[in-house]
Specification:
Elements lengths: L3 H12 L9 H13 L4 E3 L2 H5 L6 E5 L8 E6 L12 E3 L2 E3 L8 H19 L7 E6 L7 H4 L10 E5 L7 E6 L1 E10 L3 E2 L10 H11 L3 E4 L2 E10 L5 E2 L2 E10 L2 H22 L2 E10 L2 E2 L5 H12 L5 E4 L5 H7 L4 E4 L3 E2 L7 E3 H23 L1
Parallel strand pairs: 3-6, 3-7, 7-18, 8-17
Antiparallel strand pairs: 1-2, 2-6, 4-5, 5-20, 8-16, 8-18, 9-14, 9-15, 10-13, 11-12, 12-14, 19-20
């Protein structure tokens, strides 16, 4: 039995612990203590140095049914800003923040679900496969913790990532590839009132470039965005320098490459028109994945949902998650629903009832794997 009130209490305790990206030390130690209370030993890896944070990923191993495939359970512990001083409020099964911060259900709902499922399995001595439980850091700033894992030390043959949406039964089995793009435009400074014709306005160059490129939802599997612009010194100075940060994502590699080229070309063309210089930095954020029907982890998640009389649904995601990195490293992984809505906003909320159902879903998946291994 997974107790609803216990799930609410644990979730609220976790979100009260500040854990913005790269400052997750306190929450990692709190999770390690909770695992220790279950008799599960967890270690902190060396990812802190790689990501530039105060703590590494938390990794625990739980022995299971001999002959069963090892399963990775994952959630990330960091939250986006504004995410410090979270004060959760509970109305029935709905939990939200006070309205001046995010709630942190992305992804402490996932953390809570894993802890609830583990506690239930161990207390009730339920059959389960060998488990590798990985709580990652710095996910929100580029999946950095997952990228820094030592994959040679992992034995997992499939993974469940607890970082999904609101609807119970949804299995996110595909996600896009992504590029991050950054430009620095260099023009020429001049007095804006005395001799503006001597200047080259870097902000204008950037504005023209952005206006020329397709942005937003480009088709059913491709998006692009310009998210950050910074530059200029004063209103009476023609701005010499501006920096621009953006991204593009697609489930189709050819479309991704074409959109990346369009964005770069737009800046180069605008710079050439005005005699400015532009430097571009392009970084591959993560690669797409598609775990298809028939692959074991997908089928186990699907059948477990049906066993709980929940209608399973496959969904293509629009964002990146640790699942992208696990799949890239040869661990087929899907993302399952955890209950939050309006994530990354101060209106974020989570349904604790869905958290309970998701913990039951995880438990059912693991029992199904163990049962088939022992048959």
């Amino acid at each position: 039995m997974i107790d609803l009130q216990a799930v609410i209490d644990e979730f609220c305790a976790l979100v009260r612990i500040d854990s913005p990206s790269l400052r997750e030390g306190e929450v990692v130690r709190a999770i390690r203590d909770r695992l220790a209370e279950m008799g599960v030993v967890a270690e902190i890896d060396g990812a802190a140095e790689a990501v530039g944070g105060e703590v590494g990923n938390l990794i625990a191993r739980v022995p299971g049914e001999p002959g069963a495939p090892t399963v990775l359970l994952n959630a990330h512990v960091d939250t986006v800003e504004p995410g410090c001083g979270i004060c959760p409020t509970v109305e029935g099964t709905r939990i939200c923040s006070a309205g001046d911060t995010v709630l942190g259900a992305d992804d402490k709902a996932g953390v809570t679900i894993i802890l609830a499922a583990l506690r239930h399995i161990l207390e009730e001595k339920l059959p389960h496969p060998p488990l590798e439980v990985v709580f990652t850091v710095a996910e929100e700033i580029g999946l950095c913790g997952a990228k820094a894992l030592d994959y040679d030390a992992l034995e997992a043959q499939m993974g469940l990532v607890l970082d999904g949406g609101r609807t119970m039964g949804v299995i996110t089995n595909a996600a896009p590839s992504a590029y991050r793009l950054a430009w620095e435009v260099t023009g020429a400074a001049a007095h804006a009132g005395v001799c503006p014709e001597r200047g080259i306005n870097a902000i204008r160059v950037a504005a023209e470039a952005i206006a020329e490129m397709p942005l937003g939802r480009l088709d059913h599997e491709t998006t692009a965005n310009i998210g950050v612009i910074a530059g200029g010194e004063a209103t009476n100075i023609v701005p010499e320098r501006v920096t621009v940060d953006g991204e593009t994502r697609s489930h189709d590699e050819a479309k991704l490459e074409a959109q990346k080229r369009r964005m770069i070309d737009a800046f180069e063309a605008a710079a050439e028109r005005h005699g400015a210089a532009v430097a571009a930095e392009v970084t591959r954020s993560y690669r797409s994945f598609h775990v298809k029907h028939g692959e074991p982890v997908f089928d186990y998640a699907w059948r477990a949902a049906e066993a709980l009389e929940v209608r399973p649904q496959a969904e293509r995601g629009g964002g990146g998650s640790d699942a992208n990195i696990f799949n890239e490293h040869g661990i087929p992984s899907v993302i399952i629903a955890t209950g939050p809505a309006d994530v990354h906003t101060v209106n974020e909320s989570v349904d604790a009832g869905i958290m309970v159902e998701s913990a039951r879903w995880v438990t059912q998946v693991l029992q199904l794997i163990a049962a088939e291994a022992s048959a």
